[in-house]
Amino acid sequence: MTDKIVIKNIKKSFSSGSESKAVIDGINLTIGDGEFVAIVGPSGCGKSTLMKMIAGFLQPDEGSIAVDGVERKGPNANGILISQHGSVFPWLTVQQNLMFGLNDEHIDKAAVADHYADLVGLKGFEQHYPRELSGGMLKRAEIARALAVKPEILYMDEPFSALDALMSLRIRTELLRILEEERHTVILITHDVEEAVHLANRVVVLSNRPATIQTIFDVPFAHPRKLSDPALQQLRDDILRELGIDC
Amino acid sequence: MIKLKKILPPLALITTLIAVWWIVVVKTGSVIFPTPLQVVTGALELIEDGTLWEHISSSLMRVGAGFLLAVLTAIPLGLWMGRVDGAYATLNPVFQIMRPISPIAWIPLAILWFGVGNASPIFLIFIAAVFPLIVQTAAGVHTIEPRYLNAAENFGVSRYKLYRQVVIPAVLPDLIVGMRISLGVAWLVVVAAEMIALRSGLGYMIMDSRNAGNRYDLVIAGMIIIGVIGLLLDGLMRLMEGHKSVRWRYDR
Description:
- The complex is a heterodimer.
- Helix content of chain A is about 30%, strand content about 25%.
- Chain A contains 7 helices and 10 strands.
- In chain A, the strands form 2 sheets. Chain A has a 6-stranded mixed beta sheet with strand order 6-7-8-3-9-10, with helices on both faces.
- In chain A, β7 (about 155), α5 and β8 (about 185-190) form a beta-alpha-beta unit.
- In chain A, α6 packs across α7 (about 230-240).
- Helices cover about 80% and strands about 0% of the residues of chain B.
- Chain B has 12 helices and no strands.
- In chain B, about 35% of the residues are buried.
- The interface between A and B is medium-sized, with 23 and 23 residues.
């Protein structure tokens, strides 16, 4: 597996008033092409800051992030961020949203949009406005909009946290099915350890603020994974223990 | 039925006010202040000889021209100020100083610059309408949620697409509010602006009726017509709030 993203010793601190608070304190991580890496950590440890830096929306104070060997300076369409709060444009229809990132190389943008709407189970809702959709459908529209531009990398920042458990599980299963077809490199930030072991090849556990990598767990199970599998449960418990929760 | 329930109370209040007005004028035996009936007859007189339409269309034309100029100036300027911090920092203080200056204070300058033709009242209406719209547009751009701008940046779309599909639709609800305020103010200053107008407009009609023979019936008729047209104009602007591309902002 070739290296897709190489993160070298990045640091970031924010200053409020005169004092400066370190948020990220030296993180090194290499992510392979087509790999699915989940990052978990205590809340407020700087996971979202880390994600913003990897996706290019924030520059690290020190260190570097390279994608395909080229240093990342800002966001681009090679890697799409799916944010926690959602960013489907409420003033565009589902179809217009899905067409948003498509450039003029696509001859029939509407057809591409409709294909991806179908892929995430939004067939028949192409002409609806986001306010007419449920939370789960909105999330799927956002994922479809990202997939439509065929990004090499998906940056997912707690994408399912606003959904109920059932909807979260359903979308996770759909995501796995889609990833089977279109291989993307995925970085997933989550606070849900079960979600991490369900989806990822590796789970990175961050420490408390300022965040450093505490441990990295391999998830050596083939898909489809059963959440009730004892080995998976054991791994989940190990990760939770690492986060300081005994169960 | 629900509509009737909403209309009935204000209708009752207006009827009562007219009745009180009538009774007071009759009881005090005022010779100058007209009764509602005299106002209506006065207005009918103007409708018959056609001058009322002339006044209304002149006023609407001036307000329309001044407001249109304000829209054409304020929206690009407001968008630019909203997007470019340097432009905002430089221009905003100047506009904040100009905004509280009443258009009436501009009358001497308007006469100096534009004479007493149509240009002066149009200029005054423009001055009144342009600043609130600039401020509202820039504020609208500033309140666009960063997640939408970030998403647009992420997809690497062209500047044209960024404005066409993100910035402008996102500020459209604010633009509509700004245009409502702006048109309201434009109509508000029409009387003052037409004090210096030649022979036409509702403002001119009011001033002329008083100067040429104390026709207070026509003064009041003019005032009421201005009020009613103002209400209709606002209703027209409010129709835009129902458009489906801005409904996301209103029904939640």
